[in-house]
Structure formats: C-alpha cells, structure tokens
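Subject: design request, 410 residues
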C-alpha cells in the first residue's frame, strides 16, 4: 500500500498543478530559530488561494476526472479547507460541487465555499458524521466523491509540498507536519523519503484526537470517540487506509499537543511572523516550542498548513494570550462611595503608567460594605513586573486591591 503513491506520481502531480497552484514561500525565521533552538523555516501554505494546502490534492484529483465525471458534478466531505479547495477548483473547471461540512464548521469556511459557487450542506456533529452524509449524497445524486485524504491522487498532490521543501531548503534535516486523516504527511513523506531518506518526517496531532498516533501504536487503524479541538482542520476520528500504510512505513514519529499549546502557537505566529494560521497549522510550531520533538540544532521546516480561522477565535486567543503574558490584568479595588473617589483612583493608575481598558462600578453584587463600592479595572500593562508595580502603588495609596485570576469574577 505504501507504494500506491510514488515519486513519479508526485512529480506528475507537480507538472499538472504548475499553472494552478501557488508555490508557497518557505521563509527562514530568525526569531523562531532563537525561540526553539533550531534553524527554523516556515512553509506558508496559508497563502494558497483558498488559504490551505488542500488545494493541491483537490486540484490534482479534479484534473484527473473525465468529461463525463465533471459533467455529473462532485461531492466532498470536509471540516472546511478541503471543501473550499474543491469548491474553488470546481468553479474554475465549470463543474458543480456539493460540500458537506459539520454543523460546527467555522463560518469563514462555510461562507467562502458558497462564494465559490458550491452548495454547502451542514450535517453531523463532526467530520466523520459529515463524511457519512456525503456518501449518502453521492449515491442519491449520482455525484463523484472527492475524498479529502485517502485517495492516491490527493496524496500525490499534497506530496508536491515535499518536492518544494527539498528545493527551497537543501540542507533540510526534519519536516514537521500537521496530521488529521494523513493525506498531507503521507504525500510529504513519500516525496521526501524517496529523495532524501535521512530527513526526518514528524507528524503532529491535537491531543484531543490523536488518531494516527494511536493507530501507529496499535499497528492498525482505530476509531476515536468524538472530541472538540481548536485544530478543527485535523479533527479526524479515523485515519485513511492508504495514508496509514504510508505513514507506518515512512513517518518517523507522531506527537501530540494540547489546546493551550496550540492557542499559544497561533499567537506566536501572529506576533512574530505576522501571519494568520489556524489551529491545525499551528500544531507544528506548538510541538517545536514545547519540546515535543528533539530537533534542537537541526534545520527544520514547519508546514503551516492553513490560515482559515474565525476572527472571533483569534480575538479570544489574543486576549487569553495577553492575560497569560501579564499584558492584560483585571483588578478589583474597594473605594469609599463618595464624589471624586473614582477620579482619584484613575489618577493613581495613570501615575503607575497603566492604561485602563474597562472599568465597572459594582455596589450591589460585591464584597463592599454600605458606604463603599467595588471597582473592577481591566488594565493594559507591559508585563508581570508592571502589574506588581501597579498593585504596590495602589496599596501604598491606601486602596484594598486584589488581582482576579483566570476564571474569576469580582
């Protein structure tokens, strides 16, 4: 099964995709290199037209269809990115597309697929249930099914990333790849190991749904129970049959990262690389930063597989990240309930050079006694040392001050 996709297939896919797919940059990051102790490159697949690597496999498969199959139309099951890729390239080829996504699919992915002319059907609580529904639609409407990962044409398309990586980074020693159903890592491993077998190919999964990791440990595919993860693009409960066999033979290791590590990696990429990456794509940096892989001192490429993340999710990640870094803090302060008291408090905060973002007066639902009021301040600071300096300054002025930790309310 591991030979179902070979180097010749991947090279043929690259030729077929030459005028269709963007050769994404593989940029060196000095800051990430210092942060991780490796020589770190980032493969920016989030810059593809539909925002992810999925275009490669989808376009390669769609390009192989006969005129009769294109006329019938296609159906795909997707957590989002595969559906976008199928919709976009079906529009380019003049074929109709039905995309089945889970009911919780990010709005940005649903609206984008519709913008590309696809019929979007929301069905099921997760990818696997959406997949089952898509198979029903395939039969009922006599459509061609476009598998998101377990098809040799899709795997070969994804494998073109491996060819690009070896050209863009000739001294590559390891490539770190997000893993859901396994199409991406299977394709990259098939390309890289055929040309440079000494290069390590390492997969990363969300700890909530480590289907490939469990399958490799057991020596057979497993089906995991449903679970939610910020890395919705790799939230797959069972890996593919073809992708498992390729991974079993060619992938060196698969590790897992937790939700907080993924969220932090999204924020790091936003701040350091000025690039928006979704949860699935950020797993690779999460693994490297949190030492889940032993790659210190090596030349490493991180595949940032996609950038289709809801802006509301980004907002929550930024706020939580600022709290963890001590750049956002919430304090409660007890005041005498008298004219001018609030003005004097804000003056003291200004003296400590903190910026007030939000302020709430609470007389009824607080620990304040009659004649007192409790004020909740949300402050922008420069870090933990600054928070402590602000707190000391207020206490020295005679205020009772408490810091509200995550999950607390005054």
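Subject: RE: design request

Done. Sequence follows.
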């Amino acid at each position: 099964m591991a030979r179902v996709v070979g180097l010749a297939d991947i090279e043929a896919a690259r030729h077929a995709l030459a005028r269709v797919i963007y050769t994404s940059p593989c940029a060196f990051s000095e800051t990430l290199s210092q942060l991780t102790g490796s020589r770190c490159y980032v493969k920016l697949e989030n810059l593809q037209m539909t925002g992810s690597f999925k275009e490669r496999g989808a376009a390669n498969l769609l390009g192989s269809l006969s005129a009769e199959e294109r006329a019938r139309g296609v159906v795909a099951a997707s957590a989002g990115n595969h559906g976008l890729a199928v919709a976009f390239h079906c529009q380019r080829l003049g074929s109709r597309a039905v995309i089945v996504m889970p009911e919780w699919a990010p709005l940005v992915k649903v609206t984008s697929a519709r913008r590309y002319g696809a019929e979007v059907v929301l069905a099921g609580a997760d990818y696997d249930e959406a997949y089952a529904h898509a198979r029903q639609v395939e039969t009922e409407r006599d459509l061609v099914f476009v598998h998101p990962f377990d098809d040799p044409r899709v795997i070969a398309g994804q494998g073109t990333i491996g060819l690009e990586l070896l050209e863009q980074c000739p001294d590559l020693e390891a490539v770190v790849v997000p893993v859901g159903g396994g199409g991406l890592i299977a394709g990259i491993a098939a390309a890289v190991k055929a040309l440079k077998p000494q290069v390590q190919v390492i997969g990363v999964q969300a700890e909530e749904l480590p289907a490939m990791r469990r399958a490799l440990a057991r020596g057979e595919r497993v089906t995991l129970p449903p679970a939610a993860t910020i890395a919705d693009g790799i939230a797959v409960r069972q890996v593919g049959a073809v992708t498992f066999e390729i991974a079993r033979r060619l992938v060196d290791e698969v590790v897992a990262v937790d939700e907080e590590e993924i969220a932090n990696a999204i924020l790091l990429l936003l701040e350091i690389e000025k690039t928006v990456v979704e949860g699935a794509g950020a797993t690779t940096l999460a693994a490297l930063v949190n030492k889940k892989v032993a790659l210190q001192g090596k030349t490493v490429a991180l595949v940032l597989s996609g950038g289709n993340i809801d802006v509301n999710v980004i907002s929550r990640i930024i706020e939580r990240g600022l709290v963890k870094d001590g750049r956002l803090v919430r304090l409660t302060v007890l005041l005498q309930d008298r004219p001018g008291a609030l003005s004097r408090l804000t003056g003291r905060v200004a003296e400590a050079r903190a910026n007030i973002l939000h302020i709430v007066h609470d007389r009824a639902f607080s620990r304040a006694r009659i004649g007192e009021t409790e004020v909740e301040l949300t402050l922008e600071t420069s870090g933990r040392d600054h928070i402590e300096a602000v707190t000391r300054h207020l206490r020295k002025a005679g205020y009772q001050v408490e810091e509200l930790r995550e999950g607390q309310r005054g």
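The chain has a mean pLDDT of 93.
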